[in-house]
Amino acid sequence: MNKLENYICGKWISGEGEGQILFNAVNGTPIVSASTAGIDFEGAMVYARKKGGPALRKMTFHERGRMLRALALHLLAKKELFYTISYQTGATKIDSWIDIEGGIGNLFANASLRRKLPDETFALDGDAIALSKNNSFMGHHILVPKEGVAVHINAYNFPIWGMLEKIAVNLLAGVPAIVKPATVTSFLTEAVVKEIISSGILPDGSLQLLCGSAGNLLDFLTSQDVVTFTGSAYTGRLLKTHPRVISESVPFNMEADSLNCMVLGEDVQPGQPEWDLFVKEVKKEMTVKAGQKCTAVRRIFVPENKIEDIGKAIASALHQTVIGNPLNDKVRMGSLAGMGQREEVKQQVQQLLSVSSIISGSLDSVSVVDADDVNGAFMSPLLLMNERPFVNTASHDIEAFGPVSTIMPYKNMDEVVELSKLGKGSLCSSIVTADNNIAKQYVLGAASHHGRILVLNEECAKESTGHGSPLPLLVHGGPGRAGGGEEMGGLRGVKHYLQRTAIQGSPTMITAISNVYQQYAKGNVSGRHPFRKYFEELAIGDQIVTEKRTITSEDINRFADLSGDHFYAHLIKTDFEGTMFEEQVAHGYFIMSAAAGLFVDSYEKNPVLLNYGIDELRFTKPMYAGSKLYIRFTCKEKAAQETKEPNPDIQMPKGSDIPKGIVKWLVEMLDDNDELVGIATILTMVQMKN
Ligand code: NAP
Fold first, then answer.
1. For a FRET experiment, which of 47, 358, 523, 668 has its CA 20 to 30 Å from that of 493?
2. pLDDT tens, residue by residue, 489-510
């Protein structure tokens, strides 16, 4: 029998011995075996740290983002191959789409995140912190990649998405990974990693793969590593308390069993669009991926007077689900990932039946289309009913990781919030309601116990991504039983792989370290006006201090007429008694405009292509007629723009072929007492010389 290969230290290697046999979940035939026996786990960790880490850390966030995009495009071109393998895990076309294209989508989303990070190998985090009276000492936070390995131990349900959603994040951060998918479905992960490696897109050592047992891999963890785990709470706890995890203070991100719930709002009546939405969403969550989703709905809470009607409606929807061969177009639900997994689900259902009864489906039989119900890991969707959810609490404790869910009644909002919390922490909860007040009470009442809450109604249903979809830019994880982890979530996820270090020093020193101008740092006032410099010629800290302009009452009147802003504070005739002002005050926007009049180098064409906008603008002190305004204008930050590849099919906007970058400028608006009257960060688009 063929053996899966492990990708370790830059080579594809078979493990020793016969290994674990992996089966086609649909018909039970053995397909391949997997072994990691004899693999040098320590060598793999060292290789990642010595080879992959340094190569990734040399790249900027933007370069790593573009690498992820190239990888996403490469895998997309190969997706058909993955579909042909995926069905052997019992996955239908839709299930496979979530795994394959959902996973690739994650690469794209993380690739785009580069735009929220600098084109540097490090980033600043948060705001500058003033630490001294005279502004000579300050603090900031800097983020640098950890110098270790991301060890990902994954579950069997999403062999591709499970890997890609995690490596997208650590690779963007600049940290290499060792991936250990769950063995039963690792044949699909192996196929994807073969494509990734052969593409040559990732630097050597940035991705390694183990198909089979994790062996003693965790014995070689050190303090710069990060472990993520997705699977059962039992294994999670075992690994989280591994002596190396504890002695080396290794961050451990855990996603474990989660008894997610869906609530039917008290306002929803039969016949209302939300009623049908609820039934459809519950059915989807029970049957997609045969209920083997970390976010699948396990508990269904319904107002007690509607429990019978909703039970019938869900049962009728479930009866229409065609189960069988995932390759058959009519089939909507495939098999579980294997016979072992089905057996486990059945055992959990037996336990659930001590506190509930089956109202739809059968534990002993399933009718399948175009498939083998004896050797394939098929199972009928099971809808259970627990009428006393506060007394019979097993429904909140036992997770059957398959197409199984329990309906339970509630009396009022307090009860349903309480019931949702009996799950002791979940990845996701949903409420279906058209009532804003009900939604608000539920969200604020229940949020402490759930990682994500979806409020579903007719208004958002068409475009809703649904209860079950974790999204790359939203947090995925949940408190308590769900593992207490948090992955993805846009930049939040990337930060798990970055060390945040507080740095202190003079503003000039922090500017030099961070390459971002800090207020009160020394500026470079010599030389040409910065608007006469091309992008490459501009240095952070290039500065001009303008001449002074007197702000007159006539200026204020003219600006009021020109803009139409006749707010009473800007009018000379106003009685200022009881107002915030002493007399006619200049419009903040006039001060900003007058500032531009002072710092813009006019008339002749120069490398500044356009004004791009304002990031921050604050008016800090009123300016009255007669006072003088001057500006300290400093180059704060630069980011080169990627040029779009010319596309003969699309008419590109004028100037899109000009090489350029965005420059941020700190605009300090000062009066004749040298006091700040306003401060802004403005953006310009500046042409490159070459
Ligand atoms: P599991 O036994 O805990 O396995 C999960 C992963 O841990 C697999 O890769 C497994 O490898 C590995 N593993 C097991 N023992 C290990 C050890 N001693 N050292 C290192 N690695 C070890 O979970 P499962 O039963 O396969 O998966 C089903 C469970 O996963 C369900 O209960 C479900 O709740 C949970 N799950 C949770 C999420 C989530 O995001 N919250 C997602 C999916 C699944 P092998 O395959 O080689 O044993």
1. 47
2. 899 999 999 999 999 999 999 9
Pick the atom of ligand 1 nearest to 233's CA: 3
pLDDT at 381 (0 to 100): 96
CB of 182 within 6 A of ligand 1: the answer is yes
Could you tell me if residue 1 is inside a domain?
no
Do residues 652 and 632 make contact, with C-beta atoms less than 8 angstroms apart? no
pTM for the structure as a whole: 0.93
Question: Ligand 1: distance of its center to the CA of 514 in Å?
Answer: 41
Q: Which residues are catalytic?
A: 255, 294
Query: Is any atom of ligand 1 closer than 6 Å to the C-beta of 257?
Result: yes
Judge if 302 and 231 occupy the same domain: no
Ligand 1 atom with the smallest distance to the CA of 153 is 9
Q: How far apart are CA 677 and CA 168, in angstroms?
A: 44
- Per residue in 610-650, pLDDT (tens digit) is 999 999 999 999 999 999 999 999 999 999 988 777 677 77
Residues 418 and 552 placed together within one structural domain of the fold: no
Identify the CATH number of the domain in which residue 629 sits.
3.10.129.10
- Please state, in angstroms and rounded to a whole number, the distance separating the CA atoms of residues 642 and 636: 20
Give, for ligand 1, the residue of 39, 230, 234 to mutate: max count of ligand atoms closer than 8 Å to Cβ: 230
Q: What is the tally of structural domains in the chain?
A: 3
* CB proximity list for 121: less than 8 A, separation 6 or greater: 57, 58, 59, 60, 61, 144, 145, 174
Cβ–ligand 1 contact at 294 (below 6 Å): yes
CATH of residue 241's domain is: 3.40.605.10
Ligand 1 centroid distance, CA of 230 (Å):
6
Distance (Å, rounded) from C-alpha 277 to C-alpha 207? 42
Distance CA 587, CA 591 (A): 6
Same domain, 248 and 264: no
Residue among 6, 89, 158, 232 to mutate when testing ligand 1 (max atoms within 8 A of CB): 232
- Using most ligand atoms within 8 A of CB, pick from 39, 89, 153, 405 the residue to mutate for ligand 1: 153
Q: 32 CA distance to ligand 1 centroid (A)?
A: 20
Q: Please indicate, yes or no, whether residues 90 and 57 belong to a single structural domain of this protein.
A: yes
In a domain, 130, yes or no: no
In whole angstroms, what is the distance from residue 632 CA to residue 230 CA? 53
Q: Which domain holds residue 460?
A: 260-469
Q: Rounded to whole angstroms, how far apart are CA atoms 185 and 198? A: 21
- Per the domain annotation, does 601 fall within a domain? yes
Domain end: 478, 498, 518, which one? 498
Does residue 132 belong to any structural domain of this protein?
no
Write a three-state SS string for 398-467. CCCCCCEEEEEEECCHHHHHHHHHCCCCECCEEEECCCHHHHHHHHHHHHHHECCEEEECHHHHCCCCCC
CB 450 less than 6 A from any atom of ligand 1: no
Q: How far apart are CA 163 and CA 22, in angstroms?
A: 19
